[in-house]
């Protein structure tokens, strides 16, 4: 992204809650584009030494206490996420100084409005689709900037760990957020809709947000018509739309681009699209869907289908999206961001071709757990087989004033009554002992959950414990 198209030099911003998964890359991008950036986070105040803080410092972000001291006269704006509570001292200080408060998504939409943005929206899979599109555009010489919800592994030119890239062209591939409604504030050149399910908001609310995004899109849109819920999104008459689907999806025969002749291998998928062959080195039908959407979007940006499809052979994935950590004694260990019913079901289906599945699931907050409780129970009942093992951790507590009256036991109890192997494990040590004692050759282990930055390291701890059981060196078969 050329600095002349993003005049942040001389600007000053403070990011409150800077350690969040969406906030950190945004703060890094802002700093790398020349602005003076400070950031505060309650985990920093607690003395937690998290990798995200190291990455922020490397990008030039100055970390300060979350006591209002970072909000100084002359700050252009205070950027925050919806997770930051109104009692935050930074807010009071900004109000006293008359400094504008801007939600992260709104700030991102302002940056995207100044360039040729490709905005990806959806309730599942959008981080992977966003990274795939960025990979294809980089591989095709478009030199785009990129800001995604997950760290794209191996993306050429990306700033570590891979959630952002500063390119030299006007192209900007960006993942939007429907949870705070900011998706409707974008005015992109190209909009891509991946799917629509009940997630942060009810379906009718998200449907309206997506309709507003399409209305404000300048050039063309890509619509995954294999998702029936997207059919209810109003399509503006002025906007050319490329439709895409996977063979066998609803109304797939009417799509402009169809992923057909699908072959699901243990560690990869193959299919044909637009007369071209595609291979993606990741498992599951969801990979096919995501890849088809990415190819269609790249095609909408002017890249031939055969070129876009071929680029996916070197796609290295997204951290915490079915990320294979390694194997021990024929037992594979994965780390995944799945945290709602749809994402959990998709992850289970992708991991299914082998033996027993061991799931360590940490619900990612009291509000989301209460919102999804019944659907989580239904999902695990339908997706798990008799031999599968579900280990439920206590609900992740990010602090604040949340209603803590729901517990993981409220999910486990009805599952055990339905003869599902589900138990609450009060500690990760106990979960590790259960897995080491019970997992056998051919099984798969997956750590699931969001918001908690320590989950990836726990997945590696499980792998190390399994390797120790077999006498293999801890680094012997680990895969980063």
Automatic annotation (TrEMBL):
<keyword id="KW-0132">Cell division</keyword>
<dbReference type="Pfam" id="PF02875">
    <property type="entry name" value="Mur_ligase_C"/>
</dbReference>
<dbReference type="InterPro" id="IPR004101">
    <property type="entry name" value="Mur_ligase_C"/>
</dbReference>
<dbReference type="GO" id="GO:0008360">
    <property type="term" value="P:regulation of cell shape"/>
</dbReference>
<dbReference type="GO" id="GO:0071555">
    <property type="term" value="P:cell wall organization"/>
</dbReference>
<keyword id="KW-0961">Cell wall biogenesis/degradation</keyword>
<dbReference type="Pfam" id="PF08245">
    <property type="entry name" value="Mur_ligase_M"/>
</dbReference>
<keyword id="KW-0131">Cell cycle</keyword>
<keyword id="KW-0436">Ligase</keyword>
<dbReference type="InterPro" id="IPR036565">
    <property type="entry name" value="Mur-like_cat_sf"/>
</dbReference>
<protein>
    <submittedName>
        <fullName>UDP-N-acetylmuramate--alanine ligase</fullName>
    </submittedName>
</protein>
<keyword id="KW-0133">Cell shape</keyword>
<dbReference type="InterPro" id="IPR000713">
    <property type="entry name" value="Mur_ligase_N"/>
</dbReference>
<dbReference type="InterPro" id="IPR050061">
    <property type="entry name" value="MurCDEF_pg_biosynth"/>
</dbReference>
<feature type="domain" description="Mur ligase C-terminal">
    <location>
        <begin position="320"/>
        <end position="451"/>
    </location>
</feature>
<keyword id="KW-0573">Peptidoglycan synthesis</keyword>
<feature type="domain" description="Mur ligase central">
    <location>
        <begin position="120"/>
        <end position="298"/>
    </location>
</feature>
<dbReference type="GO" id="GO:0016881">
    <property type="term" value="F:acid-amino acid ligase activity"/>
</dbReference>
<dbReference type="GO" id="GO:0051301">
    <property type="term" value="P:cell division"/>
</dbReference>
<dbReference type="Pfam" id="PF01225">
    <property type="entry name" value="Mur_ligase"/>
</dbReference>
<keyword id="KW-0547">Nucleotide-binding</keyword>
<dbReference type="InterPro" id="IPR036615">
    <property type="entry name" value="Mur_ligase_C_dom_sf"/>
</dbReference>
<dbReference type="GO" id="GO:0009252">
    <property type="term" value="P:peptidoglycan biosynthetic process"/>
</dbReference>
<feature type="domain" description="Mur ligase N-terminal catalytic">
    <location>
        <begin position="13"/>
        <end position="115"/>
    </location>
</feature>
<keyword id="KW-0067">ATP-binding</keyword>
<dbReference type="GO" id="GO:0005524">
    <property type="term" value="F:ATP binding"/>
</dbReference>
<dbReference type="InterPro" id="IPR013221">
    <property type="entry name" value="Mur_ligase_cen"/>
</dbReference>
